[in-house]
Specification:
Layout: H1 2-17, E1 25-32, E2 35-41, E3 47-52, E4 54-58, E5 63-69, E6 74-76, E7 85-87, E8 93-97, E9 103-108, E10 121-127, H2 129-140, H3 149-160, H4 163-166, E11 190-191, E12 196-197, H5 200-208, H6 210-213, H7 226-236
Parallel strand pairs: 1-5, 4-10
Antiparallel strand pairs: 1-2, 2-3, 5-8, 6-7, 9-10, 11-12
The chain binds heme C and copper (II) ion.
Length: 240
């Protein structure tokens, strides 16, 4: 039985190491306490767009992920797509994989990296190529600027509170880089690296009191008058 398993292991390893990576999609993923930043590169190697926690990849095309860590050691692991690979600060590593079937694959940080290590999940959605291209085209766009009065007020709240110091929203003056890029945050299924389903109520709870939901997070609580909070939520819902 063991011999059979060894044989299967060697064959799988060989198949994995022979994965052709020409015409691969290149993504740079950086582990932060406790979330993932992903920078997609266009085919000429220039940065295309940045997002957090939810990667999309085209089915059948190899993906090369450059792994980095911003603070402590994390481990990039999507059990149904590839093995574990450490993300070590100051050291560059890559991992290659190909999704052969469409679907949503859950990933998890696999190295204890502090309090909220267990709340450092991510999703890899494998889409048929045309659907992937449509997604990527939307992610490349800046935030919409035609807003009704409530959403416009919400945008002002975002820009005048501390949010912009840590977050970027392309198409606005917000260019912080301490937290996730929020340009298309409303297109994500979860908030805060798989911690909360992405809906208006959870978003409100997260903004008002992130440290109860994820103790130790770098994001501070923000107390806002109810009308300002509602306007902010309305604007954030436009960030599709
Ligand atoms: C000191 C920096 C800082 C400030 C100020 C800040 N945030 Fe954050 N924010 C973060 C960090 C770091 C995370 C990632 C937390 C995690 O997942 O562990 C985050 C996560 C988020 C998320 C979840 C994003 C995702 O893709 O999961 C939203 C939404 C958000 N912040 C909105 C806001 C808003 C709105 C404000 C202003 C009222 C704000 N933040 C102020 C640092 C900050
Ligand atoms: Cu981690």
């Amino acid at each position: 039985l063991l011999f059979g398993l060894i044989l299967a292991d060697v064959l799988t390893d060989r198949a994995l190491s022979r994965l052709p990576v020409d015409k691969a999609l290149h993504i740079e993923v950086t582990g932060y306490q406790w979330w993932w930043q992903a920078r997609y590169l266009s085919d000429d190697g220039a940065p295309a767009f940045t997002l957090a926690n939810e990667l999309h990849v085209p089915v059948g095309r190899p993906v090369v992920v450059a792994l980095k860590a911003a603070d402590v050691i994390h481990t990039f692991w999507v059990p149904n797509l590839h093995g574990k690979k450490d993300m070590i600060p100051g050291r560059d590593a890559t991992i290659e994989f190909r999704a052969d079937r469409p679907g949503v694959y859950r990933g998890q940080c696999a190295e204890f990296c502090g309090y909220e290590h267990a709340l450092m999940a991510f999703l890899v959605t494998a889409d048929p190529p045309a659907q992937y291209e449509a997604w990527a085209a939307r992610q490349r766009l800046p935030a919409v600027t035609t807003l009704d009065t409530v959403a416009a007020r919400g945008r002002e709240v975002f820009l005048t509170q501390d949010c912009a110091r840590c977050h970027s929203v392309r198409g606005t003056p917000a260019q912080g880089s301490i937290g996730p890029d929020l340009t298309h945050v409303a297109s994500r299924q979860f908030l805060a690296a798989g911690t909360l389903a992405n809906n208006r109520g959870n978003l409100a709870g997260w903004i008002v009191d992130p440290r109860t939901l994820k103790p130790g997070t770098a994001m501070p609580p923000t107390r806002l008058p109810p009308e300002d909070l509602q306007a902010l939520l309305t604007w954030m819902e436009t960030l599709k």
